[in-house]
Design brief:
The protein is built from 13 helices and 20 strands. The protein is an alpha/beta fold.
């Protein structure tokens, strides 16, 4: 059986930073103690004081399979994820065909079993006529129902009040929402056209503005309160929306909020430099909104930090603003960007572990993951705060071959990532050809 001993780590767990050794036996953590003597023939890893964190659990990714694999695949993007210290992910339904029934979900699970390097779960996409599919979901196997409230394409848009009320009333699993009001967005676009103007990327945050977000997110929160539904509002981007949420222990909330790493890093001041590469929905907004989001992470108004990883090809992003797709690849450098916030004293490393691992595990009820506890699965990431990382398009692991962080020098480095006790990334290289990943199980 696989036995490893991580020596001299600074273990970041449950609000504490503690020098300790960690023994891995098989897929799980067997022992945590200040000084564990090595066994004969046991593989010993000297952490040399580096941070040992629970692997990031990313509750919002778009890995593009099936149907859109020219952008990315479950295999390619999960490899980029583990290179960035993400050991589990929950993937969205807007693929082709959309994941709106159990047959589509079963197909995605089969793909992941063959090729994912990180643990996995998949959302069912809500439509205006698949309520019976939603009601039949097994809460122990499916992470949640994704509802695009007013801003989507294809058959995943849910706008009709009766359909939304039924979902909030009947869903047996967590409801997660993309909140932008389509009527407001269309109105803003019409104003440009009526004035004979063609909008560009500098107008993105004006078209998909704060009011579009607030109108939709406040509606979602009101429905959750009316039906006592379990609601998680994804990618909050504006200061105004923060008034909808409360601080406190995540275990006591039925309405929670998420921020994404790019909204904590970029602002609309970056549009002239990066253009469509940071076009995303909801839009990156003002520097004051970014500051409010960072403060909300600290105060507890924001419960979870995720990526909304959404790769597109370089050529797709070079199109004119209105034609260029929204979304950017993020999983490989998300954790490093948060460690950079630690270096700049905006976040603590303990808070990073809470928002990226502990709280996702608690909110979704993920069994035996998200903490560095004896008996838990050994999903771990070793991060050096003493070694830097130079980011470039050439060195990233994304299938699309580019990163919005190109040219950035992060002050930290991902040294090693473990998934279920197996080293999957080490010293800058992927180390596994066969996957040790497992489907996530939920205690609900």
């Amino acid at each position: 059986m696989n036995e490893q001993l991580i020596k001299n780590a600074l273990v970041i767990n449950a609000g504490l930073s503690m020098p300790a050794d960690v023994r891995i036996r098989g897929a799980r953590i067997e022992r945590i103690a200040p000084d564990i003597p090595a066994k004969a023939n046991e593989q010993v890893i000297d952490a040399k004081g580096a941070w040992l964190l629970p692997g990031m659990i990313d509750d919002q990714v778009h890995f593009r399979e099936p149907g859109l694999t020219h952008k990315g695949s479950i295999a390619s993007e999960s490899r980029a994820a583990v290179a960035g210290g993400i050991t589990s992910y929950m993937e969205m339904p807007n693929v082709s065909p959309a994941s709106t029934n159990m047959a589509a979900l079963a197909h995605k699970y089969a793909i992941a079993r063959q090729g994912s390097l990180a643990n996995y779960a998949f959302y069912l996409g809500a439509t205006e006529d698949n309520l019976e599919d939603i009601k039949a979901l097994d809460p122990s196997k499916i992470c949640g129902v994704k509802v695009f409230m007013g801003a989507s394409t294809g058959d995943l848009l849910v706008e009709h009040p009766q359909a939304l009320e039924a979902i909030f009333r009947e869903s047996p699993v967590l409801i997660v929402t993309h909140c932008e009001d389509g009527r407001r967005i269309n109105h803003n676009l019409q104003m440009y056209r009526q004035n004979g103007l063609t909008p560009g990327i500098l107008d993105h945050a004006k078209i998909r503005d704060t009011e579009a977000c607030y109108a939709s997110s406040s509606y979602a929160v009101s429905l959750a309160k009316q039906y006592r539904a379990q609601l998680h509002v994804l990618h909050i981007t504006s200061e105004k929306e923060l008034s909808l949420f409360s601080t406190g222990n995540i275990r006591n909330k039925h309405i929670t909020a998420e921020a994404c790493v790019h909204h904590l890093w970029f602002s609309q001041d970056d549009y002239p430099r990066l253009g469509n590469l940071i076009k995303c929905n909801p839009a990156i907004k003002a520097a004051s909104d970014r500051e409010a989001l960072l403060n909300a992470v600290q105060s507890g108004l924001i419960d979870i930090i995720a990526t909304d990883h959404a790769p597109h090809t370089w050529s797709e992003k070079q199109q004119a603003y209105l034609q260029a797709p929204a979304g950017l690849p993020l999983v490989e450098h998300a954790l490093l960007s948060l460690c950079e916030q630690v270096h700049h004293n905006r976040l603590s490393i303990e808070l990073v572990a809470e928002k990226t691992a502990h709280n996702p595990a608690i909110r979704y009820g993920i069994a035996d993951r998200g903490f560095i506890h004896e008996g838990y699965f050994a999903d771990l990431v070793l991060v050096s705060a003493k070694h830097s990382t130079e980011v470039s398009h050439k060195t990233c692991h994304y299938h699309c071959g580019w990163t919005p962080f190109n040219g950035t020098r992060f002050s930290s480095r991902i040294l090693t990532t473990w998934v279920n006790g197996q080293v999957v990334f080490d010293a800058g290289k992927l180390t596994q050809s066969q996957t040790p990943a497992m489907p996530l199980v939920f205690n609900r």
